[in-house]
Design brief:
The complex is a heterodimer. By secondary structure, chain A is mainly alpha-helical. In chain A, 55% of the residues lie in helices and 8% in strands. In chain A, strands 1-2 form a two-stranded antiparallel sheet. The longest helix of chain B is centred in the middle third of the chain and has 45 residues, at 286-330. In chain B, 46% of the residues lie in helices and 18% in strands. Classes of the chains: A mainly alpha, B alpha/beta. At the A-B interface, α1, α2, β1 and α3 of A face α6, β7, α10 and α13 of B.
């Protein structure tokens, strides 16, 4: 029941939706419901973390296949916008 | 060269009918010697004269007709232009073939431009074409149609080839020119709507020589970046020539080969290139392509929120049902009977039992409130443990209720015992224990309290603490003070 078993975001989200459907059907024992609910909370937190896990990078891939931060001129406006934004 | 083309020239070797008509217009000019007739010419001389005449008379021509018998040989292109009434041999040299923007095929209606000449060894006149264009349709359009048909036939554009965008595209690749408006538009939209994205840009020339190859290389390079989720390839608006790189086969194939989904975003809404057909997704503009990626992120956020709400709601419903079940149980006769039963024995006990039950209900309510709070707090990692503890509390409360009732019952029993003890001390039997006896008149079955009630000869029964004696009265002694 840890996040280690979660394959990726997509798998986590669809498992979460399956759990919710089962809980909504309501024919489970309380014990089952609670353990499904607990798994649901783990998945939900994982998904949320993945969504909020911000990369916020702009990189340039050059001819030699190297990744470099994009020159400031290219991303002009982004810094001020980000300060004003989120 | 087929015999078909050799035939029309045969009559020209007969000088009589033709020369007058063919050669008369240029007669006023510098007419070759042969025209005068009379002198006998060699074939070569005549052919040379005809060539001179043709080449001087038709400087440049543009001929419209249907392509047939098209074939390439040694870099040269040979074909026949024909209409309903005539045919014309055409040759294109390498320099002209290189400039072709479409592939000439039999049946195409074309316009060929060039100069007329004579091929001496065959005695054929022919058009040396330096520009060949599709008639009506531009060459680019035709090339576009041809490539589109071909790739379509290959199945490259089939719907089942299209891959969906990943549910959560975190790394977005962009293949376009660093200087173009497309890059600016894409970055602006992503900044505004999906600032969490990681963007990798692989610059590529998007027009001019080598652009198609550059785009193809960029696509394969950017797809190798670890974690790449989706690639946007495109450029801003322009003329059909400006956008042409995106109509090249090498670009279409690079898009199809790309291991991650590709969004094509070329020019404006109305520009549909081969790249658009080959891509997994077509965006009308570069901004729209970025918006597609951003909306993917927004969708998934909404989906997660809705799912979390449902998760919470599902357990809430569960707890509500559980609460009503417990209320039903606590109202059951097994519990309800207790106060009544106790009341029959002791009002005080009944009141304690009521108080106890109120306390237990309050406790149950508190436990459920705790459970409510627990499940409402989605972030509580140890919910199950705490909910289990709450359940334990409920069970414990019920247990304590039962224990308390048992205790009260024992108390009651002890009190009953004490009462019985007191009752015991009041019993006449207890007096007998101290040595007293009770005397019964056997004739009247009454206790004898006065000696005058009896006479000699009556029978009495004397009850002792242990056992009874029957006896006869021999004499009675009346009380001395006459107080009876």
């Amino acid at each position: 029941m840890s996040t280690d078993e979660i394959k990726d975001f997509e798998a986590a989200l669809s498992e979460l939706e399956t759990i919710v459907r089962k809980l909504e059907q309501g024919d489970l024992t309380l014990e089952n419901s609670l353990s499904l609910y607990e798994r649901g909370v783990v998945l939900s937190r994982y998904c949320h973390a993945r969504l909020e896990d911000v990369e916020k990078r702009i990189e340039l891939l050059n001819e030699r296949g190297e990744l470099k931060p994009a020159p400031p001129g290219l991303t002009a406006g982004s810094d001020t916008e980000r300060k004003g934004g989120r | 060269m087929t015999s078909l083309f050799d035939l029309p020239f045969e009559p020209e070797q007969q000088p009589e009918p033709e020369p007058a008509r063919v050669l008369s217009p240029p007669a006023s000019r510098d007419v070759p010697a042969a025209a005068a007739g009379g002198d006998i010419l060699t074939v070569s001389q005549l052919t040379a004269d005809v060539r001179t005449l043709l080449e001087s008379q038709f400087l440049r021509v543009a001929v419209e007709g249907e392509l047939s018998n098209c074939r390439a040989w040694n870099g040269l292109l040979y074909f026949t232009l024909k209409d309903a009434g005539a045919q014309l041999r055409v040759v294109m040299f390498r320099s002209a073939v290189r400039l072709l923007r479409f592939k000439p095929e039999d049946g195409q209606h074309v316009v060929a431009r060039g100069r007329l000449s004579v091929y001496d060894p065959k005695g054929e006149y022919q058009l040396i074409c330096d520009r060949l264009e599709p008639h009506g349709l531009g060459a680019l359009q035709l090339a576009y149609e041809q490539l589109k048909r071909r790739l379509e036939a290959e199945g490259l554009f089939r719907a089942e080839r299209k891959r969906p965008l990943p549910v959560l595209p975190r790394t977005v690749g962009v293949v376009t020119s660093l200087e173009g408006a497309a890059l600016h538009d894409i970055l602006t939209v992503l900044r505004a709507r999906y600032p969490q994205a990681r963007v990798v840009i692989r610059p590529a020339r998007v027009q001019g020589d080598g652009a198609p190859q550059d785009i193809a290389r960029a696509l394969s390079a950017i797809a190798r970046v670890p974690g790449m989720d989706v690639v946007i390839v495109g450029r801003g608006g322009g003329s059909i020539e400006d956008l042409w790189a995106f109509n090249e086969e090498v670009v279409a194939r690079a898009i199809v080969r790309c291991p991650v989904p590709v969004i094509a975003a070329v020019g404006h809404e109305t520009d549909v290139t081969i790249a658009d057909f080959a891509a997994d997704l077509r965006a009308p503009t570069p901004s729209a392509a970025a918006a597609l990626v951003a909306s993917r992120h927004e969708e998934v956020c909404g989906r997660l929120d809705r799912t979390r709400d449902r998760l919470k709601g599902a357990l809430e419903g569960r707890v509500l049902r559980l609460r009503s079940a417990v209320q039903t149980i606590s109202g059951a006769p097994a519990f309800a009977g207790w106060p009544a039963r106790l009341a029959m024995r002791s009002r005080h006990l009944a009141e304690s039992a009521h108080a106890l039950q109120r306390a237990v209900h309050a406790r149950l309510d508190r436990s459920f409130r705790t459970l409510d709070i627990l499940h409402a707090r989605l972030e509580a990692r140890d919910l199950r443990r705490r909910a289990g503890a709450a359940r334990g509390q409920i069970i414990g409360s019920v247990g304590r209720l039962q224990a308390a009732m048992l205790r009260q019952q024992h108390l009651h029993a002890a009190r009953l015992g004490a009462l019985a003890g007191r009752l015991d001390t009041l019993s006449p039997l207890a007096v007998l224990g101290r040595g007293y006896a009770v005397c019964w008149n056997m004739a009247h079955d009454s206790i004898v309290r006065n000696a005058a009630e009896l006479h000699a000869g009556d029978r009495v029964r004397v009850v002792l603490a242990r056992g009874t004696i029957e006896a006869g009265v021999t004499r009675t002694v009346p009380p001395e003070n006459g107080d009876s």
